[in-house]
Fold:
Amino acid sequence: MLPDDPPPLPALTRAEAELIDRYLEVVDLLGRINPALDGDTYRGLRAAQALVGRASALRDALALMHHRGETELHATTLARALRVLDGERRTARVSLPPGPGG
Structure:
């Protein structure tokens, strides 16, 4: 039995798609840096070094949207896109894991 096809991405402007891509890159790096998760310092260091460039790219994506007159974030549509791109799992790595007994 084949897995179900993922739902299609919602219609996004090119700038919105760039924002989503850059945001998820930053989230992935923050997940690798998260000191509450097992890992090694070298992996965290490499992720922190890469974070500088990815954060700049995220800033540039938002600046481009603003410059082009896209001054509102359509949260419902963008959240749907994040879910399709596995954003829930990816952002979960940034938060604290459940504590003892939780």
Q: What stands out?
A: DSSP finds four helices and no strands in the chain. Helices lie at 14-33, 41-67, 75-84, 87-92. Residues 5 and 67 are 36 Å apart (CA to CA). The two ends are 36 Å apart (CA to CA).
